[in-house]
Give the backbone structure.
Amino acid sequence: MLKATLRSFLAHKGRLLLSALAVLLSVAFVTGSLIFSDTVSRTFDRLFASTAADVTVSPKEDLDEAVPSGRTATLPGALAERVRQVDGVAAARAEVDVDGLTVVDEENEPVGPTTGAPTLGTAWNPTERSPVELTSGHAPRGDGQALLDSETADRKGVRIGDTLTVIAPPGSFEVRVVGIATFTTTNPGAALVFLDPSTAPAKLLGNPRAATGISVDAADGVTDEQLKQRLAAALGAHTYDFRTADEQAKSDVEQLGGFLDVIKYVMVGFAGIAVLVGVFLIVNTFSMLIAQRTRELGLLRALGADRRQVRRSVLAEALLLGLVGSTLGLAVGIGLAAGLIELMGLLGMNIAADEMVIGWVTPVTAYVVGLGVTFVAAYLPARRASGVSPMAALSDAEVAGVGRPLRVRAVAGAVVGAAGAAALVGCAVSEQTSSAASLLGLGVVLSLIATVIAGPLLVRPVIRVLGAAFPALFGSIGRMSQRNALRNPRRTGATAAALMVGLALVGGMSVASESMTASFDQQIDKTLGADFVIQNTNFLPFPKEVTDEVRGTEGVGLLVRGRFTPVAVRLPDGDRVETTAAGYDPRLDEVANITYVQGDSAAALADGRLAMDRDFARDHDVRVGGTVPVEFPGGRRAELTVGALTDQDAAEGFGTQGGLYFGLATLERYAPGGQDSALYVNAAPGTSDDDLRANLERTLDPYPQVQVRDLADYKQLVHDQIAVLLYLVYALLGLAIIIAVLGVVNTLALSVVERTREIGLLRAIGLARRQLRRMIRLESVVIAVFGAVLGLALGLVWGVCTHEVLALQGMTALAIPWFTIVAVVIGSAVVGVVAALLPALRASRMNVLAAIAHE
């Protein structure tokens, strides 16, 4: 049996190649993501571990800043002197590190990275642990001198002697580049500007006596943990944060973790699609191969092989396929990881490819995924093969399932479909976002399974409709192509299912994203009343001088500032909620349309008061006139009175959870040092919008990071952000289509082999080569369109239910992207034509006599 299995596998290796490609893609994405994330994690582990001080003293920060406030937490620079007096301290340095800077050259072009990495300003305090070393020029001395990292200098063509303008939180200043510093470790993609330690606090923090942290070196014989305890005892454990080198490195890695997780989840998403669609392909391939080998299997049974031996033989072939696909997939995954590392290099994150990490988990995962996919996919065909009777060797029977009743599928599909429909209905009527989202996920999974199970039941009614015009358009060729697609509903359903999965995903996400876009447009029209909004390109806050320049621009009639801060609110029901609150100037009503349930903007923005969303207030037993304790950054606390309740949707943007906002006077009292994140500007009487825009753009020309946006620009910004999600979905769709095309090609190729005698007879009675190719192409098109119709119908249902979940968050507009749907159906027909090219060509080149004699 082993010899027979190996010979059978080698005899059908061409037919199994496309299935092996599905396994290869699945394994490649899984291993590529593992290798890439392990390599990046190891690289940054080494970077942070090698550069962290023995102990770092930082300002106490109890609140996470989900939305940038522009505030830099500081501590007294003189604290370094107190630290030096602590027993066990060998050295202590006051550090100044500020991110979110903007640096421009003499032509007002940004010098920093454009990939989202920060531009950092820091004091030049070189030590043996520094990630950079001075490689040309000299260290900055006094005011107006700076170093620039070599990669930024090379990328932007900056040379020693050039003048740069640094736009920092306290304001802009010019520096002359006097030296270049080169990274000795991995550059995480940031641009670094180094200033003289004597001037950095004033330039970057606006306070010559401030620092962002103290780096402490331990004396010989003193461990990091011992030094940390001594420092905490001397300075006050509750006054500052104290971290050892290991703790600091771990904290830095955790901050980087979000970026790595995004890449990992995207890669796993691609792997999941490849695995799911690959399963359909492999099931179909083995089902058809077993159908074609009915007599061979019957002969093995007649020679004495029992059911278990036949089943093991088929599963052994599948495992050989999985072994080959996993091995090739592992190799391709290594190449994919290397490609991602090179891509990161182009984006400014330099990771050495020769430091690629391939841990033992990676190959184990590769073979578990590859062998698992093929084993699961081949199990049902293998069981069917074990049921072949020895008498089949004497007949032309096959076990492809043609003609077998579909009652079991009908019952199973109905049960699972009813459960899925119930979950989706529950999602639509639920009033809680969490429960609605859970029901949506359950409904999506169950409805997908039900459609796959019941797919063959839908083949005959749907394809009769889809192919109804074929006989009229193509005559007998059209009729035969339609009947070929109807001949084996199981095979047609399984082939179309691969395409259906991808199109259901893109259909659902397209409806959701189009609805989100329409909802945001609706909310922007409803709430934004300003002529222009001034914001940073990447939504980071900007220096006060930008506000001052805009305020002094000719034609500006009204300017309302918007600023954010992290807060924690202790509520009457005992909950402590950490969220982001906003602060606004008076006259907010003139630039925004806010719906108040109780109170008004005057009450909301009055000193010592705040506004809150009514649903949040109701859930936590808050009433107008009541007081709530609010914690601000730096440990400041206040008892604020609830002055107003609003009926605002999440899409309106006035805060996050709870919709908290108050007057800027209140914000500046309890959270000083923040920066404006948005300016809402109205034109003065007699100034046109066009004139004001031109004036504002002229004013902001020295600040390339700040943009002027009107209502249409603001909408386009939201559209572009949502489009990023769609691009990912379209990439997943592309992968699903690639594997689905492989499935259609495989099915048609095996079908041509299966129908060799039939094709020979058709050719013998006068069917031309061109007609034969057309027949196979039409069969492929109708299968592909059938998959598209099922997928889009399912996707529309998912999309509508997703909209119901979004509606609970205020995004109430429902929009169906009909253009996309029509384009996808037409594209599916094109996919069908492309997939049929090779099988049709092969069929048309058959020798007629040899085909008739084929068994």
